[in-house]
Design goal:
globular, Immunoglobulin-like, 5-stranded antiparallel beta sheet, Glucose Permease (Domain IIA), mainly beta, 2 domains, single chain
């Protein structure tokens, strides 16, 4: 007799936070993935899911998801494949997953959703079924660190909303709350119109520490991407130490205490002004706008994140 499929469920990210939607809608949204981690056979498929939303101890909504519905939100984002690039961030968080399901919810704030109960039934290649349940807390994130804007001069801010993919719209939890800041030129309204690094409107602009803290990482060995507008050739970074994280380029991580950090990445090669262990003040110069690592945007940019793992992150790309 065939054995029952062996798997477990894992929520990604580990902490799920909701955000109030803009525009006075009086709704809040949250999003997460349920990764199906295979313990034996990975040839598994979703058959059904029961999802219950709770607020203040009472059920607010019950959803029944069919196999056809689940197929539309099924992905494999956390598994390393034969063609996964050397620099792919997934290599740092790889999971032995059969698949994952991305769930998105939007509810009236008055319901005060505080947890989700999920029961997932899967089917193996031989037709055997099994189910697992998971309870997922949902809460607001309360940032404790007060931040200043990390650049001087004029710029333009652009991003998608956090629960709609965030900066870049890639759906990567590492950048969902990012804010892109593009430099403006002396005409105060024109971005660089060339694909040359030297012509970027923000290139070389000083980056300021967004809050006081201790430097816990300062990397400066990653070269500039010579092809703005295109992803860099990963053979560039293969010989580097820790090529996976070399995708972040030259970077600085500042520990502000309270389990909150600022992470500044893709900094200009040779411009870092701080080192590991330095205690720095808010507004202190730490480097300059650049295009190092896996930075293929056309212009130098800075982004801001308050991430799902209780961090505050600034990203240069």
């Amino acid at each position: 007799m065939a054995s029952q499929p062996g798997f477990r469920l894992q929520v990604v990210p580990a902490n799920v936070y909701k955000v109030d939607d803009p525009g006075g809608s009086k709704t809040s949204s949250f999003v997460f993935d349920i990764a199906v981690i295979c313990l034996r056979d990975c040839a598994l498929s979703p058959r059904s899911a029961l999802v219950e939303l709770y607020g203040a101890g009472s059920i607010v909504e019950r959803q029944n998801w069919t196999a056809k519905m689940l197929a539309k939100i099924k992905r494999t984002s956390f598994r390393i494949e034969s063609n996964t690039p050397v620099m792919a961030p997934v290599r740092a968080i790889a999971l032995a997953e059969a698949f994952e399901l991305r769930f998105y919810f939007r509810q009236a704030q008055v319901f005060a959703i505080d947890f989700v109960a999920l029961r997932l039934t899967i089917t193996s290649a031989t037709g055997r079924q099994a189910e697992q349940t998971l309870t997922i807390p949902v809460r607001y994130y309360q940032q404790e660190t007060s931040l200043i804007f990390p650049i001087h001069g004029h710029g333009i801010i652009g991003q998608d909303y956090g629960t709609n993919g965030g900066q870049g719209g890639h759906g990567d939890f590492s950048d969902e709350f990012g804010i892109h800041i593009d430099g403006l030129d002396q005409n105060d309204g024109e971005l660089s119109e060339t694909d040359e690094n030297a012509a970027d409107a923000g290139r070389g602009r000083e980056i300021l520490a967004p809050a006081a803290g201790t430097v816990v990482c300062a990397r400066k060995d990653v070269p500039t991407n010579p092809k703005p507008g295109a992803e860099p050739d990963e053979t560039w970074h293969r010989p580097l130490h820790d090529p996976v994280n070399a995708s972040a380029g030259n970077c600085v991580i500042i520990d502000h205490g309270n389990s909150e950090y600022s992470v500044i990445i893709h900094i200009q090669t040779g411009s870092l002004t701080v080192k590991l262990g330095d205690h720095i003040a808010a507004g202190e110069v730490i480097g300059k706008f650049g295009n190092s690592g896996d930075a293929f945007g056309r212009k130098a940019r800075v982004s801001t994140l308050a991430t799902v793992i209780k961090e505050v992150i600034y990203v240069m790309d």
